[in-house]
Amino acid sequence: MLLGLRAVMRRDSVIDRLRQVEVPSLVIVGEEDISLPLPCSREIASALPNSSLVVVPESGHLSSLEQPQAVTEAMLRFLDEIQSDS
User: Fold this and answer.
1) CB 28 within 8 Å of CB 3
2) Exposure string for 29-40, b = 16+ CB within 10 A, e = fewer
3) Beta-bridge partners for 13
4) 81 Cβ contact list (under 8 Å, min separation 6)
5) Whether pLDDT at 5 is above 70
6) Closest to 26 in 3D by CA, of 54, 63, 60, 47
7) Which of 3, 32, 54, 78 has the smallest number of Cβ neighbours within 10 A?
8) Is the pLDDT confidence value at 9 over 70?
9) Model pTM greater than 0.85?
10) Who wins on pLDDT, 4 or 58?
11) What is the CATH number for 23?
């Protein structure tokens, strides 16, 4: 496990390249996520030109398993929004 953590810590950040994304993006984060905390997700969402950030209450890194209804609703809202914009 420690080897895996070291590998993740050494990988290059892609934050600067996110500005090149030209499609709408949805960033979903669990409010209790310690693997990718909310400030990191905010940074990702800020770097994406056309993004939405959804914070899922009472969930951690596996928000789609911990709060599947909230995640599904967030994704469906996002898809509805981008469909109505096109």
Assistant:
1) no
2) bbebbeeeeeee
3) none
4) 24, 52
5) no
6) 54
7) 3
8) no
9) no
10) 58
11) 3.40.50.1820
Degrees to nearest 5, angle at CA 68 with 64 and 74? 85
Cα 40 → chain centroid: 9
Domains contained in the chain, number: 1
CA-to-CA separations, 1 to 6, 11, 34, 69, 83, in angstroms, rounded? 9, 16, 16, 31, 41
Q: How far is CA 72 from CA 24, 46, 67, 69, in A?
A: 17, 22, 9, 5
Q: Identify the residue whose tokens are 């669990």.
A: 30
What's the pLDDT tens digit per position in 26-79?
999 999 999 889 999 999 999 999 999 999 999 999 999 999 999 999 999 999
- 8 A C-beta contact, residue 29 and residue 35: no
